[in-house]
Design brief:
Blueprint lengths: L2 E8 L3 H9 L3 H5 L6 E7 L7 E8 L2 E13 L3 E8 L4 E10 L5 E10 L4 H6 L4 H26 L6 E5 L4 H12 L3 E6 L9 E5 L4 E2 L9 E4 L12 H25 L5 E7 L10 E2 L9 H11 L2 H6 L3 E6 L1 E3 L4 H11 L12 E2 L1 E3 H13 L5 E5 L5 E2 H12 L9 H17 L3 E2 L2 H5 L9 H8 L6
Parallel strand pairs: 8-9, 8-12, 9-10, 12-13, 13-15, 14-21, 15-19, 16-18
Antiparallel strand pairs: 1-7, 2-3, 3-4, 4-5, 5-6, 6-7, 10-11, 17-20
Helix pairs in contact: 5-10, 6-7, 11-14
Length: 460
């Protein structure tokens, strides 16, 4: 029977490492972003008797994996045992062993067996052992990063944070990082008549917001907005893009202003689109607004936070770059053509891509909540923006695929119109001046390192 084991050392107290695994959001944080996995149902926690049902998609097929928790020893270990699923046998033991001079050894031990002939079908030709190496290398590194940030930003009493867009790419990750760190999250939700537990209703179109459920929050992180991609921009789409940002932000800002002292910190999303198409010019937060539709939207978006700022609240406008995650966004959209070997630079390839790793943008939001120096515009980008040609070549190298098929500007414009011009053919070389001067620690400052982590392609 095959046995797999992965072990790594953390400079953390074993009790805290174990407690992290017991909190809501731990499974979501440890699920690799390159896998199409969803949690269908769960009951209980990791103590004996808890169960989880996962949906694992492979092409058009979704496999259900039913797992129960057993062997719970407080502060020491627990097991995941398959009830039904793709394996003949799956027993995964999580152990947390004290180091001789402090710290904690995290040990994942897996006994597994597949039905005859199923390995190739399920894993697409990869060996189970290599896939497990890939999975646990990612899990241990993310655990190390999350625990380090929990330690840095968890000092004092636990935070209470309200989030709009908590089901999105950034908001979902932020929610789970907060809950695994021992903080409380209030999700601002819409489209339902009654808010579930831990949620508050809001609706920018009607002005509804359950302010009483936001009393006592330390921060409101506002991330909701109409997606930029998906449809060619026509007048109706452009109006939705702008109004979804300005109306929602205005409602949140006025709510903060009405809450009284001490005001919660307002962290409101914006975008590097504020700077327009700026060529090779290096831009920090002092740079002026650029030209174009997105630049105008970002300006109006940031102005909508004024009611909170004028009332005396600390307001941070995060000008977010391209967030790197295969879960969606720009990287998720471009992965398929690159994987099949038809990816390449867009247009001239000289336009700059100001990007940030998915885990680092969440960390920067935590920093923004805690740091009094963060006020006004803050560039949420990695320290090293790159031209589009460099970005595409690096992605191809990480995936092991050629990038020899450039897409000419005329083709981008024909396919995507104004959206293609503004999102794909223009760029700005944005530097995170405030983040660097305030001591924010990037875990993934280099493009290739970020891509390898997010795509499960780390070497060695």
């Amino acid at each position: 029977m095959p046995i797999f084991e992965h072990k790594s050392f953390l400079d953390q107290d074993p009790a805290e490492v174990f407690a992290w695994h017991m909190r809501p959001g731990a499974l979501e944080r440890l699920t690799p972003p390159w896998e199409d996995v969803r949690i269908i149902q769960r009951s209980g926690g990791i103590a004996d008797g808890g169960t989880v049902t996962l949906g694992l998609r492979r092409g058009p097929t979704e496999l259900k994996w039913h797992v129960k928790h057993a062997g719970f020893q407080e502060g020491r270990s627990f097991r995941d045992e398959q009830i039904r699923g793709p394996f003949t046998r799956w027993v995964h033991t999580h152990s947390f062993e004290p180091g001789e001079n402090g710290g904690c050894w995290v040990v994942d031990h897996v006994d597994w067996e597949l039905p005859l002939g199923f390995a190739g079908q399920f894993l697409g030709g990869r060996s189970v052992d290599s896939e497990l190496q890939r999975l646990f290398r990612f899990r241990h590194r993310r655990l190390r990063c999350d625990l380090a940030r929990a330690k840095r930003y968890g000092a004092g009493k636990p935070l209470k944070v309200a989030i709009t867009g908590s089901g999105g790419l950034v908001g979902g990750a932020l929610r789970h990082v907060l809950t695994t760190g021992g903080h409380e999250v209030v999700r601002l939700v819409r489209g339902v008549n009654e808010a579930p537990e831990g949620c508050a209703l809001w609706n920018p179109d009607t002005g509804l917001i359950e302010r009483e459920k936001l009393e006592g929050v330390d921060a409101i992180v506002h991330l909701a907005g109409e997606p930029l991609v998906g449809l060619r921009w026509n007048d109706a789409k452009k109006l939705r893009i702008e109004e979804s940002r300005t109306k929602g932000t205005d409602l949140i800002a006025r709510t903060v202003a009405a809450m009284g002292r001490p005001y919660p910190v307002l962290i409101s999303a914006s975008a590097v689109g504020f700077y327009g198409d700026r060529g090779n010019e290096q831009l920090d937060e002092r740079a002026k607004q650029g030209k174009g539709f997105l630049a105008g939207v970002c300006r109006a978006w940031e102005r909508a936070t004024e009611p909170a700022r004028l009332a005396g609240a600390r307001v941070v406008n995060l000008r977010i770059g391209m967030v790197l995650t295969p879960l969606g966004g720009a990287l998720g959209t471009m992965l398929l053509p690159f994987k099949v070997g038809v990816g390449g630079r867009l247009g001239s390839g000289k336009q700059y891509v100001s990007w940030i790793d998915h885990d680092d943008v969440v960390g920067l939001i935590l920093h923004a909540i805690r740091s009094e120096r963060f006020r006004g515009p803050v560039n949420a980008t990695a320290p090293y923006p790159v031209p589009n040609s460099t970005f595409t070549n690096t992605l191809g190298r990480v995936l092991g695929r050629p990038t020899v098929l450039p897409v000419p500007s005329i083709a981008v414009k024909a396919l995507f119109g104004e959206m293609g011009t503004e999102l794909l053919l223009t760029g700005a070389r944005v530097k995170p001046g405030l983040a660097e001067s305030d001591g924010f620690e990037y875990f993934f400052p280099a493009l290739e390192e970020s891509l390898r982590f997010q795509l499960g392609r780390e070497e060695g």
